[in-house]
């Protein structure tokens, strides 16, 4: 992320003066997929790619915003009826409105922003944008009166209320709470969280982007949620205390097998096992055991591919290729049906693996995958 680039554009598009500069990261999720809406755990970390924004109050009630990457300029007021049409500007507008609802006296400002979170690769560029502005507005207009948790909720509420996306809290949480050299285990039911050391010396973390997005993602996602709810409803007949699959064991699921469709059983089996895998990975990291971490990543991929059925040919191909190249851990990252695999690779195997992934993927699918190295980094902050 390049402060100088943002600053030069800010000076050029506004009155030649400078403001304060803020940044927030995108995120990866090492393990814990489709566990959030089942009351389980996720295990994200902030990365060294994200959004940078320069912001300066302008003494009016109008926000003047320039997207450096899209070369697009928008002005909007701060009342509910002032919502801009441009989808990127709605994120900034939404954050302003959510901060105002929480008692922050947001006034007009000039801003220019840019990002290096790859769009569509599942690293959460929108959460990085929301967290940047939530943190900045709290700093500039709120005298830091809103705590970090509420800042993450501001981003989530922006998605729900202004962008039409009914997302969980993980992306914004990771963007605000990120810490260099640590991953965060977030309990999606209680919102309690704990940092775990992630400093894999001798390994690299790399995303291989299949550059494919299959269309059925949203309808399939809703169907998976319904399967999980159906399994819980069946288990509740004998175990009334059960609220989510997080409360269930495989034994409970087995004893309700007759009342659950085969498909719903498979979906629930994946989730129950995945929630346990997150806990196993946390234990392994406390011992510095990255081999076990990698093994659990492969188990997750297998579960997402065969039990939850949210993988696709391209991702399975990349996962098999990683295994054949001796990569320590690999799995599809995100909701599935396209996007990236996340790979934990020994330094000495890295070059061979990447070369192989590019060559063999292109040979099979006629296009090259994109490759992103990521380093676990800090969350939302003021830079200048």
Automatic annotation (TrEMBL):
Q: Which GO terms describe its cellular component?
A: cytosol
Name the UniProt key words of this record, in alphabetical order. Answer: ATP-binding, Carbohydrate metabolism, Galactose metabolism, Kinase, Magnesium, Metal-binding, Nucleotide-binding, Transferase
Q: Which GO terms describe its molecular function?
A: ATP binding; galactokinase activity; metal ion binding
The GHMP kinase C-terminal domain, residue ranges: 284-348
What organism is the protein native to?
A: Bacteroides intestinalis
Q: Name one GO biological process term.
A: galactose metabolic process
Query: Which EC numbers characterise this protein's activity in its record?
Result: 2.7.1.6
* Top-level class of the enzyme under EC nomenclature: transferase
Under what name is this protein listed?
Galactokinase
Recorded family membership: Belongs to the GHMP kinase family. GalK subfamily.
> Per the database record, which ranges form the Galactokinase N-terminal domain?
9-57
Q: Domain named GHMP kinase N-terminal: which ranges? A: 91-179
Cell cycle: is it a keyword of this entry?
A: no
């Amino acid at each position: 992320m390049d402060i100088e680039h943002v600053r030069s554009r800010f000076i050029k598009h506004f009155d030649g003066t400078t403001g304060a500069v803020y940044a927030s990261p995108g995120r990866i999720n090492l393990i814990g997929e489709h566990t959030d809406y089942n009351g389980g755990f996720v295990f994200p970390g902030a990365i060294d790619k994200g959004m940078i924004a320069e912001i300066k109050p302008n003494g009016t009630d109008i926000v003047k915003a320039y997207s450096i990457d899209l070369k697009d300029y928008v002005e909007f007021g701060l009342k509910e009826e002032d919502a801009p049409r441009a989808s990127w500007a709605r994120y900034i507008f939404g954050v302003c409105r959510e901060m105002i609802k929480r008692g922050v006296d947001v006034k007009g400002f000039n801003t220019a922003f840019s990002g290096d979170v790859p769009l569509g690769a599942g690293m959460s560029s929108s959460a990085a944008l929301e967290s940047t502005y939530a943190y900045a507005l709290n700093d500039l207009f709120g005298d830091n009166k809103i705590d970090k948790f509420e800042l993450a909720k501001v981003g989530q509420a922006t998605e729900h209320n202004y962008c039409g996306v009914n997302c969980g809290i993980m992306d914004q949480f990771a963007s605000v709470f990120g810490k260099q050299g640590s991953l965060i285990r977030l309990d999606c039911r209680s919102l309690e969280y704990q940092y775990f050391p992630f400093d894999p010396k001798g390994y690299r973390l790399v995303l291989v982007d299949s550059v494919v997005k299959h269309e059925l993602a949203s309808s399939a996602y809703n169907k998976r949620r319904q399967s999980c709810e159906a399994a819980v409803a069946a288990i509740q007949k004998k175990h009334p205390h059960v609220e989510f699959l997080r409360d269930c064991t495989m034994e409970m699921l087995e004893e309700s097998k007759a009342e659950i469709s085969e498909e719903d059983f498979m979906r629930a089996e994946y989730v129950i096992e995945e929630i346990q895998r997150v806990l196993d990975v946390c234990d392994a990291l406390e011992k510095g055991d990255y081999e076990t971490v990698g093994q659990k990543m492969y188990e997750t991929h297998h579960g997402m591919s065969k039990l939850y059925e949210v993988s696709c040919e391209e991702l399975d191909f990349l996962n098999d290729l990683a295994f054949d190249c001796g990569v320590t851990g690999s799995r599809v990252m995100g909701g599935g049906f396209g996007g990236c695999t996340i790979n934990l690779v020994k330094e000495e195997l890295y070059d061979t693996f990447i070369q192989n992934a590019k060559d063999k993927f292109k040979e099979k699918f006629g296009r090259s995958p994109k490759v992103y190295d990521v380093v676990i980094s800090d969350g939302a902050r003021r830079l200048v």
